[in-house]
Design brief:
Blueprint: H1 2-18, E1 21-28, H2 32-39, H3 45-48, E2 54-59, E3 68-75, E4 77-89, E5 93-97, E6 103-112, E7 115-123, H4 130-135, H5 138-162
Antiparallel strand pairs: 1-7, 2-3, 3-4, 4-5, 5-6, 6-7
Length: about 160
């Protein structure tokens, strides 16, 4: 009976946290290392941003676990934001968060040497106010923005391969 309760509890936690994830994926005709190189270059983020709130790169270096980088943003009014890389696996996974706590995560899965499945996730399970994010309608807006970001990432990566 005790193991059943543990399994039921774990299922409840997994189900609850998945409510706070917004995700989309896209196959990109480029090797993982090329896509990862683009994602770890913070100067490319204004080009990739499907929401167009990232206006310009301010500071930072190639992203690795623990790296901080800053961007000039505009959503209703201009502001600056500093992000910290909180998840990192070379050529496979990168995620960053800022002081509100939610994360932007990219997982890269090799299909073959020239094709990669990229999964982008907006994870607000770690946010300071996940219900505030929900009330503001960000999950729905971010799904469309994620799709545009993946479109831009595909164009940039596939263009890098063809050169």
């Amino acid at each position: 009976m005790q193991s059943f309760l543990v399994i039921a509890f774990m299922y409840t936690i997994a189900k609850e946290s998945s409510r706070f994830l917004v995700s989309s994926s896209r196959e990109i005709a480029a090797p993982r290392h090329i896509i990862f190189e683009i994602l770890t270059d913070p100067t490319k983020h204004p080009i990739l941003d499907g929401e167009t709130t990232v206006k310009s790169f301010i500071s930072g270096e190639r992203l690795r676990l623990g790296t901080k980088f800053s961007m000039s943003m505009k959503m209703w009014a201009p502001y600056h934001i500093t992000n910290t890389v909180v998840e990192y696996e070379e050529n496979s996974l990168i995620a960053w968060r800022h002081f509100f706590g939610h994360r932007w995560r990219y997982r890269l899965e090799e299909i073959d040497e020239q094709h990669t499945l990229v999964i982008e996730t907006f994870d607000y399970s770690t946010a300071k106010s996940p219900f505030g994010i929900k009330l503001m309608g960000f999950p729905e807006k971010n799904l469309e923005n994620i799709r545009r970001t993946l479109e831009r990432l595909a164009a940039l990566a596939e263009n890098s391969v063809s050169q």
